[in-house]
Each structure stands twice: as C-alpha cells, then as structure tokens.
Specification:
The protein has helices at residues 17-31, 51-54, 69-72, 78-81, 119-129, 133-155, 165-173, 207-217, 253-258, 274-280, 290-293, 314-318, 327-333, 342-350, and strands at residues 2-7, 35-42, 59-64, 94-97, 111-115, 159-162, 178-180, 197-201, 226-231, 243-247, 261-264, 285-288, 306-308. With 352 residues, it is of the alpha/beta class. The strands form two sheets. Strands 3-2-1-4-5-6-7 form a seven-stranded parallel sheet, with helices on both faces. The protein has a six-stranded parallel sheet with strand order 10-9-8-11-12-13, sandwiched between helices.
C-alpha cells in the first residue's frame, strides 16, 4: 500500500496542532505498512527534513513557500498563493493537508482533502480578536478570499476528511462528501500527580492563546495552588501572583507530569484544538471551555475528569482526584475506533 501526501508545512517537530496531526498520522500509516511519498511546503525555519521524519516516509521533498507582495496581493488566499508545486505520483491516492496545498498539480488516483479548519471561519475569528490594525485587516481580507476559494477546493476532492466533528457535520449538511476523522494522539499515562498545580500551555504570540493565558491567570484558586503558563511569549505576560511563567520550555512533559489538571480557557470555537485532544489522551484532569472542546464530540463529565472552566476554580480543584481513566476516549483519540481511526483512513484511501 502506497500513498502521496502534500503537507502544508514540515510536520516535524510536531510542536503545534497542524504539525502534530500530520506527524502522528504519518507515523500511524507507516506502522500499518502504508508507504508515504511526501511533498511539504515550508518557511526557512522549518526547511530541514529531520531524520525522525524520514523514518516514516518512503520519500520526502521540501518546497520553499513563495511569500512576499505578489502572494499578498494575489486574488487567491495568501495561505494558498504561497504554496504551489507539481509532481507525478504515479496515480497514487493523494492526501492534501488543508486547502493550503490544494493548487498542487500531479496525477493521482483520488484526492482526500484534510480539512484542518473551515479556514474562512477561522480567519474571521482571528480578525475579530486581533487588536493590531494591520493584522486585523489581513485576517479579514484572507477570510473573504477563503470564502470564495474553499468551495472550489472542496468540490475538487473525493473525500473531505475533517479534524472537527462539528465541521464534518456542517459540510455534510451542505451536501459535501465529508467524514469525521479526528487526529491520532499518543496515549500518555503519567504517575498520579500530587502537586497543587494547574498548567496552561501554548504559543502566546498568537492572540487567542495570549487572551486564554491571561484568562487562566485571572482565575481564582486556593492560596496553596499555583498556575504554570508555559510556551513562547509567556515571559511577556503581565506578572500575576500565584502564576509561574515558563518561556519556551525545552520539554513540556515534566510540566504536564506534575500538574493536577490541564487548563484550556479558549474563546475561539472554530476547528478542533489539538492540544485539548492530546490532553484527553492523558490521565490528567482537563478543565476547559465549551469552545475548547468544540469539534471533539466529548462533553463535560466529572467521572472521566473533564470539567467546565470558570472564573473561580477553588471548589473544583480541591475535589480533583490524582488521576482519571478514560479508556473509551483513549480508543477514540488513538485511532483505534474503526469508524473514525486508521481503518477508516484505509477505506477511503484504498477502498477496503
């Protein structure tokens, strides 16, 4: 079994949501005996195909994105105009990662479009939350361009493989051939945590994450509890009593291991938050907003340790158990469920 993949970025390292979705799926394909020929688009800082990535692909080719004014002024969305290439994949089934790479030309047996987000909706929400006027204008224009472009990309695909269940249902309702195929996540079971710590992590240079981090920091906790905010831009957040800021941690695992709960106070609803999905693949309590859980198909349930975020978490954190077991969710997030996991991918790629 052999397929081709056009990736919107270098999937390694899997240090943000889109890269994690691509990388762990490539790994699952390889472990299932599916050979992958991959082309990926990249900016200069992610140009190198790491040895870890070559372990899981039959062949790899990187293509530099064509950024600049020509792409910015193009009638095409910027995320599309900066990515264009061609190759002959000998009629292999082709997985296109996002509308980003949908201008890719080359012979293929069928095309599976991986819908990472409804991008027009995602960029509109970015515009609504952005305070920088230039970025706000860019996000708004990108949203308008994507509103025109996305239906064309959907129509050119045989199957729309959606990360978010909500977005799969939306596309089905407007007559598109959409399926919910959520990301693969590796199950991580940590020793039961005894420290009175909560953890929020993300790239705080992204406005949505910065807003979420400040919202988490302003949450009331008991005096003997602390919150750790970790990730790029953490040190630039305003100092807050009881909040530890960790700038670009070399390894997130120790911070996750010591936390009693992982906190996700997001307000942006579009897509599926892959870091929330990955948190559900642990035995840690997850404290989240409805927006953070959007697209997962998973609701609040104290028995499995999924709790609603609120402005005062005092009573909640005092009642947390040291660990939570959720085997059915772990089967879902690890791709073991036939209707949404690896077997479903095999069916749409190879028809069996």
């Amino acid at each position: 079994m052999r397929i081709a993949v056009v990736a919107l970025d270098n999937p390694y390292p899997p240090d943000y949501g889109g890269a994690a979705d691509m990388f762990f799926r490539l790994k699952a394909f390889a472990q299932a005996g599916i050979e992958v020929d991959m082309v990926y688009f990249h900016k200069q800082d992610r140009a190198v195909a790491e040895p870890e990535l070559t372990r899981w692909c039959r062949s790899i080719r990187g293509v530099t994105r064509k950024t600049g004014w020509a792409a910015l002024l193009s009638p095409l969305p910027y995320i599309v105009a900066t990515r264009r290439a061609g190759a002959d994949f000998d009629g292999l089934p082709l997985v296109v990662e996002g509308v980003h790479g949908s201008r890719f030309s080359g012979r293929r047996a069928k095309t599976i479009l991986r819908v990472h987000n409804l991008e027009s909706r995602y960029y509109r929400e970015l515009a609504e939350r952005e305070t920088n006027p230039w970025k706000k204008a860019f996000f708004f224009m990108e949203s308008r361009k994507l509103e025109r472009y996305e239906p064309k990309a959907w129509a050119a695909a045989d199957v729309l493989a959606c990360i978010s269940r909500d977005e799969a249902e939306y596309l089905q309702n407007i007559g598109r051939p959409a399926l919910w195929l959520p990301p693969f996540a590796e199950i991580r079971v940590f020793p039961p945590a005894s420290e009175k710590k909560l953890l929020f992590y993300g790239n705080m240079t992204v406005n949505e994450n910065r807003i979420s981090a400040i919202r988490a920091a302003n949450t009331r906790l008991p005096d003997d509890w602390t919150l750790t905010v970790a990730g790029r831009g953490a040190e630039k957040l305003p100092p807050t009593p009881g909040v530890e800021r960790v700038e670009r941690p070399a390894d997130l695992e120790p911070l996750v291991a010591r936390a009693a709960a992982l906190v996700f106070p997001q307000t942006q609803r579009s897509g599926l938050k892959i870091k929330v999905w990955q948190a559900l693949a642990t035995n840690k309590a997850v404290i989240a907003t409805p927006e953070a859980l959007a697209g997962t198909g998973i609701g609040f349930d104290p028995e499995i340790g999924v709790f609603p975020f609120q402005s005062d978490l005092g009573d909640l954190v005092r009642s947390l158990r040291h660990e939570y077991l959720r085997p059915q969710i772990h089967d879902l997030v690890s791709g073991k469920k036939n209707e949404t996991g690896l077997e479903a991918w095999k069916k749409i790629l190879f028809g069996s």
